[in-house]
Amino acid sequence: MGDGSTASTPRSITRHSLVQDLKSLGVREGDCVKLHRSVSSLGWVEGGAVSVFEAFLDAMGPHGTLLTPAFTEGAWTEHLSFPDCQEACPQPFCPSQWPSHEGAIPNAALRRPDSLRGCHPTHSWVANGARAEEVLRDQLHSPTPCGRDNPFEKLLELDGCIVTLGVGVNTITLWHYYEDLLEVPYMGYFHPRERHLSYCAPGKRIQYDFPGIMQEVVEASGIMTKGGVGRSNSGLIRARTFRQFIATIMADDPYCFVLRPTTREEGALVDDALAKASAMLRAWRQGPRELPLDPDWPEGADDDLVREDCPAFAGHHTAGDHQWPLCKANDRHPELFQHGGVFNQHGKTTCGRCSWHHQFPQQGQLE
Fold first, then answer.
1. CA torsion, ordered 202, 206, 209, 211, to nearest 10 deg
2. DSSP3 helix / strand / coil % (the chain, rounded to 5)
């Protein structure tokens, strides 16, 4: 420049600089890390996704273990499970090399000769490092993606952590841990062969429909350490703290993640999201609580109950030779969304097990 000054040069993002960033964020020697990530958020990294992957291993050292999601696209794709492992299943570890739709880092992890892939048709995890076998061994027995015997339970035993690398907390699948464990009334649509749950079919979730609100809750609660990794805004939550947070907010309100109308007349789900966000913080600030493992849920089933008086009711719609009652507060249904139109926007009613139905029970059901 004419005045003799020089333009500042952006810091080069290397494997070494990422190691320093990860240690500053809170990754420890010997840690077990569950990673949710966006490589592009880091900026241009020398060596790309492989360097990012290696930086985690360097930061944790020879006794550390990295877990990355190697999920399929669930119920919304032709391949609900890995097509190249059907003959071999079940077995302790999955031999499939079917690519993950979760991006470059999990696929870099899969290509490593020392990697192990957990046995789950839709929500397998890839582990690299000293305790890979220990962390993934039980996933073969996990009846659902996020409940009993999923790798999160080993993460708890090892006092590991969850890292959100340039992404929000809405990417953390383990918000569903207690839903699966307790088989809540709003448990997702179950695909038994694949041990898969379409979580939002019986109720939209705050973390997916209002990710910014949920991010604010987590940051305001103090459970997350925030920091820069490369050029990303990233976060780290210790697994035991995360479990305690979920237990506390669900002990306060077992339906805290599920969005419903707040009155008989108003159907705006944002009102419920804001109210529940405030209640989560209030519950956490009052002190940690444990969630009973046998909550007293209101009785009810889907059966033929349709609450047409609910502000979330979306009317009856025809698919094939059947009329389906739909709900604006339920997400699209895996057996109906392919009909397109309104079926790709709203889900089937689940009135009998809906918290709004139990909160406002006076209105009658259809004859």
1. -150
2. 35, 15, 50
Distance between CA 367 and CA 362 in Å, rounded? 15
C-alpha closest to that of 357 among 293, 291, 311? 311
| 268-272 CB contacts, 8 Å cutoff, 24+ apart | 269/204, 269/209, 269/210, 269/329, 270/210, 272/206
Distance of CA 140 to the CA centre of its chain: 19
Residue with tokens 């919304």, as numbered in its chain:
76
pLDDT digits (tens, 9 = 90+) for 321-358: 899 999 999 999 988 988 999 999 999 999 999 999 99
| Long-range contacts at 315-321 (CB < 8 A, ≥ 24 apart) | 317/341, 317/342, 317/343, 319/343
- Write the burial class of residue 286 (CB in 10 Å: 0-12 exposed, 13-18 middle, 19+ buried): exposed
